[in-house]
Specification:
binds iron/sulfur cluster; globular; 119 residues; five-stranded mixed sheet; alpha/beta
């Protein structure tokens, strides 16, 4: 399984991504269901040329894209982003913290069974 993480560009101005990366490498929270050999292929932000990034992630064989918990919590574009990404990947709409966020639940959109058995 190959995954990528997309985080909120404004947040990345002051965040090192520690919470996302810690959750991934320790298989916590949104990453708890994954097998040990799951690969983190990309870590990027939601600004810039997103279509170019999507094309590159497809080329690299990414199965699942995680939208960061800060996108879920703070971005008005959260649902649109999730829908766009779901055309090419399975989408899990958070990274660290709880599935049931403070402001909204995480969006999870499967594609090709990539999320089968995963929350
Ligand atoms: S989800 Fe948390 S750790 Fe990841 S980029 Fe946003 S604030 Fe930083």
């Amino acid at each position: 399984m190959k995954i990528a993480i997309i985080v909120r560009s404004e947040t990345l101005d002051k965040c090192t991504g520690k919470g996302c990366l810690n959750a991934f490498f320790k298989k916590l929270d949104a990453f708890a269901p994954y097998a040990e050999n799951t690969q983190l292929i990309g870590f990027t932000q939601d600004g810039g040329d997103l279509e170019k990034k999507i094309a590159k992630l497809k080329e690299l064989g990414v199965d699942v894209v995680h939208l960061s918990s800060c996108i879920r919590g703070k971005s008005d574009d959260y649902e649109r982003l999730a829908r766009r990404l779901s055309q090419d990947f399975a989408v899990v709409g958070y990274t660290h913290g709880k599935f049931d966020g403070r402001t909204r639940h995480a969006i999870c959109l499967d594609k090709g069974g990539a999320l089968a058995g995963k929350k």
